[in-house]
C-alpha cells in the first residue's frame, strides 16, 4: 500500500470497512459478527484504533486455515505494512509491537521456545494444582463469605488464577509482595480508570526477573526452574519474556472464563436447577462459555507473508489479520441450526496450529476454572445474582470478553 490515502481494491481500508469498537461490540458482539458476515463474508475489512486498516477473519474454516499455514500468515509483526502510519502512542502497541518473546517467534525458533514452555508445564501435577486452587479459593471466599455479598470479578475470579499461576511458577506463598504482584498483573492486563498499566507491567517484569535470578541460584519443583534447566538452554532474558507470556495467558483469560461461567450458571435456568445437584452441569457450562462467550474474542494477529487469497479476498503482503475466535466459534457453517453444541470441544478458544496455547496449558486452565467454580458453589450453595441480569455490563474491549463486575448475594458463611 504505497499510498495510504487511496488504497487499492482489496485493501482493508477500501470501501465499507467496519470500525472495531463501540457500544454494540461491547454488549452484543454476536449481532455485529452476523451483520459483518452478511455484508462481507468470512473475511471482513475493518478499522482498528486510529482508523488503521486490517482484516477480521470471521469464518471457522478461514481461522483454522490461517492458523495452520504459518508460511502464509506469520506471527512476526515487523512484517506489517502499516508501521509508517502507526503513532508512538497507539493504544494497541502493547499487543502488536514486536517483543523478543515466544509470541512473535517463527519456525524453528518458535518450536524451541514453545517446547521449553510445554515441557515445563507438563511437569505440573494437575491433582496438586487442583488442591492448591481449592486452598486459594477457600482463603478468598473466607475473606468475603461472612458479609453475605461480594463482587466476584475482583474479589475472586481475577485473584484465583493469578495466585495459582504464580504458585506454579515458584513464587513463594508467603512472599511479602505477592498481593502487589497479583494486583499489578490485573492492572497490566485489564486496567481500570486511574490505573497505570505500563507502570504495573514494569513492576511485574522486575519481579519476574528477580524470580528467575532466585531460581537460577535455588531451583525448585516449579515451572521457572524447569525452564531454566531445560536442554534448550534459554537465556534469562528469554525466560523472563516467556514467563510473563505464560502468566498473562493463564491469568486474564482464565479469570474471564471463571466469571463468564458463573454468570451463565446464575442467569440461565437450564443450569440453575441442576448446579446444586452435581458437578456435571459445571463442566457443561465451562465448555459452553468457550463456544459462546469465549474469554479471548479476537486475537491480533497474523501478518501476510506474501499476496494471497482468503475467503474470496485479496490479502496483500504485510496486511494484518485479526483472528475472530468468537465469531468463528459461532460460524453458522458449523452450527447450521443455530444451536451450539457444548458437548464437543472443537472450539478455537485456545487458537489452533503451531501458535495455539501450548499443551497442556488448556488442561491446567480447566483445572483452575473448574476448581474455582465448584469450590464457590460448594461453599456458598445459595449463591444468587445481586442485580437483575440486564444490569450486568461487559468491559469495553474488542479483545477480551469479560464483565465489569459480578455482584452476588448469599447466606453468610460461618467459616
Please give the structural blueprint:
Blueprint: E1 18-19, H1 23-27, H2 29-40, E2 43-48, E3 52-57, H3 60-68, E4 73-74, H4 93-96, H5 107-122, H6 126-144, E5 149-151, H7 152-157, H8 159-168, H9 178-189, H10 197-217, H11 223-229, H12 236-267, H13 269-272, H14 280-292, E6 299-304, E7 308-310, E8 313-315, E9 320-323, H15 325-329, H16 361-379, E10 384-385, E11 407-409
Helix pairs in contact: 5-11, 6-8, 6-16, 8-9, 8-12, 9-10, 10-12, 12-14, 12-16
Quick structural gist:
The protein is an alpha+beta fold.
Q: What do these coordinates show?
A:
This protein is 47% helix and 10% strand. It is of the alpha+beta class. The protein has one domain: Cytochrome p450. Strands 1-2-3-9-6-4 form a six-stranded mixed beta sheet. A three-stranded antiparallel beta sheet has the order 5-11-10. α6 (126-144) runs parallel beside α16 (361-379) and α12 (236-267) packs across α14. The longest helix is centred in the middle third of the chain and has 32 residues, at 236-267. It is globular.
Amino acid at each position: 500500500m504505497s499510498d495510504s490515502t487511496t488504497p487499492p481494491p482489496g485493501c482493508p481500508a477500501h470501501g465499507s470497512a467496519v470500525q472495531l469498537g463501540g457500544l454494540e461490540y461491547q454488549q452484543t458482539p454476536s449481532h455485529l459478527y452476523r451483520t459483518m458476515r452478511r455484508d462481507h463474508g468470512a473475511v471482513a475489512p475493518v478499522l482498528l484504533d486510529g482508523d488503521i486498516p486490517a482484516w477480521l477473519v470471521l469464518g471457522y474454516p478461514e481461522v483454522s486455515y490461517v492458523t495452520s499455514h504459518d508460511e502464509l500468515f506469520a506471527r512476526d509483526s515487523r512484517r506489517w505494512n502499516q508501521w509508517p502510519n502507526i503513532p508512538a502512542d497507539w493504544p494497541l502497541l502493547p499487543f502488536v509491537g514486536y517483543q523478543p518473546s515466544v509470541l512473535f517467534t517463527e519456525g524453528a525458533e518458535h518450536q524451541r521456545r514453545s517446547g521449553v514452555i510445554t515441557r515445563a508445564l507438563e511437569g505440573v501435577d494437575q491433582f496438586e494444582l487442583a488442591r492448591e486452587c481449592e486452598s486459594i479459593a477457600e482463603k478468598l471466599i473466607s475473606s468475603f463469605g461472612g458479609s453475605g455479598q461480594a463482587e466476584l470479578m475482583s474479589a475472586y475470579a481475577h485473584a484465583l488464577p493469578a495466585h495459582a499461576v504464580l504458585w506454579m511458577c515458584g513464587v513463594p506463598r508467603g512472599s511479602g509482595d505477592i498481593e502487589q504482584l497479583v494486583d499489578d498483573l490485573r492492572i497490566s492486563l485489564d486496567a481500570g480508570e486511574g490505573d497505570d498499566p505500563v507502570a504495573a507491567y514494569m513492576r511485574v517484569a522486575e519481579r519476574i526477573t528477580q524470580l528467575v535470578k532466585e531460581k537460577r541460584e535455588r531451583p525448585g519443583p516449579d515451572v521457572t526452574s524447569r525452564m531454566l534447566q531445560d536442554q534448550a538452554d534459554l537465556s534469562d532474558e528469554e525466560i523472563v519474556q516467556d514467563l510473563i507470556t505464560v502468566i498473562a495467558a493463564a491469568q486474564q483469560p482464565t479469570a474471564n472464563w471463571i466469571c463468564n461461567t458463573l454468570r451463565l450458571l446464575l442467569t440461565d435456568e437450564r443450569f440453575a436447577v441442576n448446579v446444586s445437584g452435581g458437578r456435571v452441569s459445571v463442566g457443561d457450562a465451562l465448555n459452553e462459555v468457550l463456544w459462546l462467550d469465549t474469554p479471548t474474542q479476537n486475537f491480533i494477529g497474523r501478518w501476510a507473508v506474501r499476496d494471497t487469497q482468503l475467503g474470496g479476498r485479496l490479502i496483500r503482503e504485510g496486511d494484518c489479520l485479526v483472528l475472530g475466535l468468537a465469531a468463528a466459534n459461532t460460524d453458522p457453517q458449523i452450527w447450521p441450526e443455530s444451536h451450539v453444541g457444548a458437548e464437543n470441544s472443537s472450539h478455537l478458544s485456545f487458537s489452533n496450529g503451531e501458535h495455539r496455547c501450548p499443551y497442556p496449558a488448556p488442561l491446567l486452565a480447566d483445572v483452575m476454572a473448574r476448581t474455582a467454580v465448584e469450590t464457590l458453589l460448594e461453599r456458598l450453595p445459595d449463591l444468587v445474582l445481586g442485580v437483575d441480569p440486564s444490569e450486568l455490563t461487559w468491559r469495553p474491549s474488542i479483545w477480551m470478553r469479560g464483565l465489569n463486575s459480578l455482584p452476588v448475594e448469599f447466606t453468610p458463611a460461618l467459616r
